[in-house]
TrEMBL record:
<feature type="transmembrane region" description="Helical">
    <location>
        <begin position="319"/>
        <end position="341"/>
    </location>
</feature>
<keyword id="KW-0812">Transmembrane</keyword>
<feature type="transmembrane region" description="Helical">
    <location>
        <begin position="74"/>
        <end position="94"/>
    </location>
</feature>
<dbReference type="InterPro" id="IPR037185">
    <property type="entry name" value="EmrE-like"/>
</dbReference>
<feature type="transmembrane region" description="Helical">
    <location>
        <begin position="244"/>
        <end position="263"/>
    </location>
</feature>
<feature type="region of interest" description="Disordered">
    <location>
        <begin position="111"/>
        <end position="146"/>
    </location>
</feature>
<keyword id="KW-0472">Membrane</keyword>
<feature type="transmembrane region" description="Helical">
    <location>
        <begin position="348"/>
        <end position="368"/>
    </location>
</feature>
<dbReference type="GO" id="GO:0000329">
    <property type="term" value="C:fungal-type vacuole membrane"/>
</dbReference>
<dbReference type="Pfam" id="PF16913">
    <property type="entry name" value="PUNUT"/>
</dbReference>
<feature type="compositionally biased region" description="Basic and acidic residues">
    <location>
        <begin position="135"/>
        <end position="146"/>
    </location>
</feature>
<feature type="transmembrane region" description="Helical">
    <location>
        <begin position="374"/>
        <end position="391"/>
    </location>
</feature>
<feature type="transmembrane region" description="Helical">
    <location>
        <begin position="162"/>
        <end position="184"/>
    </location>
</feature>
<keyword id="KW-1133">Transmembrane helix</keyword>
<feature type="transmembrane region" description="Helical">
    <location>
        <begin position="216"/>
        <end position="232"/>
    </location>
</feature>
<feature type="transmembrane region" description="Helical">
    <location>
        <begin position="190"/>
        <end position="209"/>
    </location>
</feature>
<feature type="transmembrane region" description="Helical">
    <location>
        <begin position="284"/>
        <end position="307"/>
    </location>
</feature>
Length: 417
């Protein structure tokens, strides 16, 4: 009898040890996963800074030829910039089959259902007799294998169709962002673009890529309050800007708001359709966006020319040629990095990150346009910038980039008990 009790006690101890080893293995895997996500998130934030810089530079270049009436062609400029995305197809076409067979260019669904991540069992019957070390090694290997398997990567045809669905929204948002610079200042246009965060939160919550919370809503409301302060100051400075009237500023601000709404819409929808950045080849996506825009939207150029709304004319000076070329380069790089940033982080963080354009735009207006900035202007900029840090921290917790405070407290309670 005593022997049976001793045997049972030994089995219990062995099972507890095996369970502890399994738990340690899972903790290690979770730690590696969190570290990997943290690196991706930090990379996304760095790329966001690059995007912000390129967007502000592009805005000032376009504003320099629009506001002075040297070459006021917002539709043509946007058409040329989006058509330049076609250059991203040069490398895949030159590489031929080598590029086309790379992972991410085609679907890889050749694994058996038994090999799916869901089939990884942490306590299967075959592991009952394994030692604790062997069990931990088995689980670690299974998890690593499951993590390496490709998910449902988009084929070339699927990538082309996805770019077709989004190319019109993409063009509309960029055209409105360029056209508004004819009617308002760069600072006002970039600041109002930050309202895309509000649209992103609402739309993202509806489609399931964002979690709605009062904290996020309050942060966005603080951002909008800052935007209101800056926009009010922008209108108050009308007398100091001979090229802009109160009416034109209102039109420009409304166009910027419309652009922000479209940005919020397709950033959320892109995250829904793509999910992880490993599912799609971004060069193909942007290349097809350029091709579709070139094919679909050229008739509008003729309509605008015939109606007199925007005449088709060659750039009048080498300076305008240079501005158009540099703007295409800036758009070619910034929009590509912008989509990558969305997939590395979240749509809400990226749209809130547009607030980073505010200090750069304000400094640019002070230096190049001789705009006088009041104290309320600066207060508004601080409100918008602070809201971004609040949103980013909440998003990092939700995406398990940093430990959640509640989870950390629960872990401490479990450890103490």
């Amino acid at each position: 009898m005593t022997g049976n009790n001793d045997s049972s006690a030994s089995d219990v101890i062995a099972n507890v040890a095996a369970a502890a080893a399994l738990g340690n293995g899972l903790d290690t895997e979770n730690g590696k996963k969190m570290a990997q996500n943290r690196r991706k998130w930090r990379l996304g934030l760095f790329l966001l800074l690059v995007v912000v810089f390129l967007w502000v530079v592009s805005s000032f270049m376009v504003n320099s030829i629009f506001e002075t009436e040297i070459y006021r062609k917002p539709y043509l400029v946007t058409y040329l910039c989006t058509a330049s995305f076609s250059l991203y197809l040069i490398r895949p076409l030159m590489d031929g089959s080598i590029t086309l067979k790379r992972k991410g260019f085609k679907s890889l669904n050749t694994y058996d259902s038994d090999d799916s991540p869901e089939s990884v069992s942490l306590a299967s019957d075959t592991e009952e007799n394994l030692s604790s070390t062997e069990a931990a090694d088995r689980v670690s290997a299974d998890l690593e294998t499951a993590e390496r398997r490709p998910d449902d990567s988009l084929t070339i045809h699927e990538t082309s169709m996805l770019s077709l669905q989004f190319c019109v929204l993409w063009f509309a948002a960029n055209w409105l962002a360029n056209a508004c610079l004819s009617y308002t200042s760069v600072a006002s246009g970039t600041i109002l673009a930050c309202t895309s965060s509000f649209f992103t939160l609402i739309i993202g919550s509806l489609v399931g890529v964002e979690k709605f919370s009062q904290r996020k809503l309050f942060a966005i409301m603080a951002s909008l309050a800052g935007i209101f302060l800056i926009s009010t100051q922008d209108s108050a400075d009308d007398d100091e800007n001979n090229n802009l009237t109160a009416g034109s500023i209102i039109v420009g601000d409304l166009m910027s708001l419309a652009s922000a709404a479209i940005y919020g819409l397709y950033t959320s929808l892109l995250k829904v359709r793509i999910g992880d950045e490993s599912r799609i080849n971004m060069q193909l996506f942007f290349g097809f966006v350029g091709i579709w825009n070139t094919i679909i939207l050229w008739p509008v150029l003729l309509i605008l020319h015939i109606t007199g709304a925007e005449r088709l004319e060659m750039p009048p000076t080498p300076y305008v040629w240079l501005i158009l070329f540099l703007n295409c380069l800036a758009t070619l790089g910034s929009d590509y990095l912008w989509i990558v940033t969305i997939l590395l982080t979240s749509p809400l963080v990226v749209t809130m990150g547009l607030s980073g354009t505010i200090p750069l735009a304000v400094i640019g207006d002070i230096l190049f346009n001789h705009v006088h900035v009041s104290l309320w202007y600066l207060v508004g900029a601080v409100l918008v910038g602070s809201a971004f840090f609040v949103i980013n921290r909440d998003e990092e917790k939700e995406h398990h980039i940093i430990p959640d405070d509640d989870s950390a407290e629960d872990a401490q309670e479990i450890t103490v008990s």
